[in-house]
């Protein structure tokens, strides 16, 4: 059995070996405070740590890498948006038609993470695929004031402001 003095000695001797994780992105927290329009590539959302934080982004466009064929907009990527942007400030979201969204509940969950979202750009293919989901349709009717639906892979979509 270890007594209090032995615990104290063990802890004191172990402190020098303790690795304290650094959150490097905090050093850049105010660097991008004036950014309001942001385009992110899907690969950025797959990183484990983020060096930059964009606190005032109101318009966000998510694009897949050029070499990817219909990558999924998975849960980890959607959660990463909270580490890169302030979800409370986002009013516009553009999702490239090249993304594959698994199901309507995944899309609904992502949209609900942005409480101020009022404008959405999405492909007609995604909307047709999820048009039968009453929860998603009710959410879109209630919160989205501007719905921009595009039919083709628009190269101009890359440069939306």
TrEMBL record:
Q: What is this protein called?
A: Uncharacterized protein
Domain of life (superkingdom): Eukaryota
The UniProt entry, under SUPFAM superfamilies, shows: RNI-like
The source organism is: Rotaria sordida
């Amino acid at each position: 059995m270890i007594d209090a003095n032995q615990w104290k000695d063990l802890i004191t001797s172990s402190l020098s070996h303790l690795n304290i994780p650094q959150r490097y992105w905090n050093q850049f927290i105010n660097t991008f405070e004036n950014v309001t329009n942001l385009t992110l590539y899907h690969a950025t959302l797959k990183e484990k740590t983020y060096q930059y934080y964009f606190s005032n982004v109101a318009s966000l466009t998510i694009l897949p890498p050029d070499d990817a064929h219909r990558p999924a907009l998975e849960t980890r990527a959607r959660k990463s948006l909270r580490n890169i942007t302030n979800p409370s400030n986002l009013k516009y979201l553009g999702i490239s038609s090249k993304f594959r969204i698994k199901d309507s509940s995944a899309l609904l969950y992502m949209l609900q993470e942005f409480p101020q979202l009022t404008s959405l750009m999405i492909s007609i293919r995604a909307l047709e695929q999820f048009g039968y989901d009453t929860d998603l349709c009710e959410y879109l009717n209630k919160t989205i004031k501007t719905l921009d639906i595009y039919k083709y892979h628009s190269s101009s979509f890359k440069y939306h402001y």
